[in-house]
Amino acid sequence: YESETLEGHENQVLHVSFSHNGLLFSSCSKDGFVKVWSTESRPTRVRHSADMKQYSWNYTQYSQFNSSDTLLLVSGVHFGVHTASGEIAVFNVEPGGEFQLQCRVLNKPYDIFGTWYTDDYLVSSRLHFLGHLVSCSALWLNKACQESESERKPIIKRMFRFYNKNASSIRTVLVADCLADPEDDSPPDPQPSETDSWGRKLAHNRGHSHSAGSAQRGNPVSSLGANRLLKSLQTPPNYSQRDFYGADSNISCTNQSPIRYSSEYRCEQQSSSSTTNRNQRTCDNLSRTVSNDTDSGDSDFDDPPLPWNEDWLNLSDDELNDYTTTGAVNTSKSDHKSAKRDSKSPNLSPEEESSATTSRLLCNEDKLLLFTSGSLTYTPHQIGIKRIKPIVFEEFMSQTASLSKRLEERRQEQESQAMAASPNWHEEEAVAHMFDTVDHTIDLKGHIIGMCLSPDHRYLYVNVRSWPENATIDNPLHPPPIAQQIDIHVIDLKTFKSVGNMYRSHKAYTPNDECFFIFLDVCEQFVASGAEDNHGYIWDRHYGLCLARLPHRDIVNSVAFNPKDPEMIVTASDDKTLKIWRSRSQMNESRHYSKTRLLSSDS
User: Composition bias, kind Polar residues: at what positions (predicted)?
Assistant: First the structure.
């Protein structure tokens, strides 16, 4: 049931996301504000708010809490009629602390959005144009709390750079944990165990985690064996259409377009239902080799001058094999490097001398970089997957040049390279050695408008507006027409295969050049998405049935489940409101509690 309507924004609300503990959720809007709401009280109230237009932002478009719920990443779009430039801001949201801005990071194109790599490092992008319809996307790792005491403390590091052709670019990045061995991991068990008020399994989630005109809809992309066994698994439970959120709607849900999972997905669900050990993390399906690319320093990429010596990922194959169980780098190599640095800079303070010998391993497990891209046209139609090896971040650099000297060196370098012959950037094979390769690419043959991870990072759910069957692309600037319905595709991040889809599930009407993002969310038992038909939708994740339609007065841009309470969901709409929906049982409990308090006060 709709339990609350929040009217704190003065323009279209584009995105909503929950903290992992379920106590806060944030909203982004075309009014330029980011707001943080508390769920601990009813009615729900704004705890923090910031107007980002003071930083030359046109509007805020996306937000994400870090894993400890102490920092909030906020992504926005700069002012400009045809701009593709954006920015990422990080705010402190620790309990009892001030809603203080920690850092701002350039982000281009803006629909990269940005994402957390670890609890205090985030991923951003820079786009560099190389020639007609050809560009480079450089992904950067940024420290979220950027100290200013010393320029010798690194705060950014380049991760990858990818070659883009046919006017495409990297967009919408996510970072996922690498998955467990088949023996140790499984998708969620469809068989109920511990149950809620509907007799459904309780979710114990860890969170997952363009025009400037305000009249334009939404947030557009930047311009730039068992047949018998399977039959039994696919038999739906006996749902009532109003058993879940009980949303009122003139059009009832139908079961004509359930999520159709492949036999691999269903069989693995059944065979792994008794598996409980999910602690051993591996990533066997991707190459175990660290990228051999080095930083060429080519000025065509025009990255900002760095006050330290940047090595590509700061790892070699030998160093990779020298990690201890605590994730430290081999001592002899570390000492050798420190000795070289100390010989060059003998006059360091004791603090600087101790800091100069330390490097920080940000994460001792491999991760997956997920992003949307394209190869045939500028609209994102592919899912790219790149394995991220453990990254070492220098805590302190003992030898740096002054800013003026670095700028002069950059100017001289640009002048010398301007005189030299530039490579032919249109010959992809000839320049391939300058770029990183994508490990896996999955073409979904349509315009991708949103994606999210399942709570266990096993599955990627993607909103796609499909192209006509057998469509051909002769001009990358003229992609095929897209369907007026949104399909949901399910990708297994262990096998990197599509294992399910739901066709014609919810509506969208805008053409390619006006298409905008429709965000979806996944919890242990349910999938939800916004739509352009003024409704949010909820489906049973395993059986694929539509359970409810959540009405608004305008387009629903985003939905978010409370990760600690899947009986609560928030929707964000172009009608300038957020709505909180709670289950029938929660509403009954709330009414009973209110009635009890009223009787107590009267007595």
Answer: 211-223, 322-332
The CA–CA distances, whole Å, from 11 to 154, 531, 577 equal 39, 18, 9
Concatenated DSSP letters for 308-362? S---STT--HHHHTT--TT-PPPHHHHHHHHHHHHHH-----HHHHHHTT-EEES
Work out whether the CA dihedral 467, 470, 476, 479 comes out positive or negative.
negative
The DSSP result for 156-192, as a single string, is: EEEEEEEEE-TT---EEEEEEEPPBPTTT--PPP-S-
Indicate the burial class of 21 (C-beta count within 10 angstroms; 0-12, 13-18, 19 or more). middle
Give residue-wise pLDDT tens across range 239-255: 343 333 434 444 444 44
All residue ranges of the chain with pLDDT < 50 are 182-214, 225-256, 274, 276-357, 592, 598
**Cβ proximity of 258 and 544 under 8 Å:** yes
Per-residue pLDDT of 517-528, as tens digits, reads 999 999 999 999
Domains located in the chain, CATH noted = 447-602 (2.130.10.10)
**CA angle, 344 then 345 then 350, to 5°:** 145
Could you tell me the two tokens for 555?
A: 């387009």
What is the distance between the alpha carbons of residues 239 and 147, in angstroms, rounded to a whole number? 54
H or E element, residue 264: helix 263-271
| Strand 101-107 to 86-92 pairing | antiparallel
- For residue 63, which phi and psi values (nearest 5 degrees)? -150, 155
In a 3-state reduction of DSSP, which class is residue 571? strand
Return the pLDDT at 71: 97
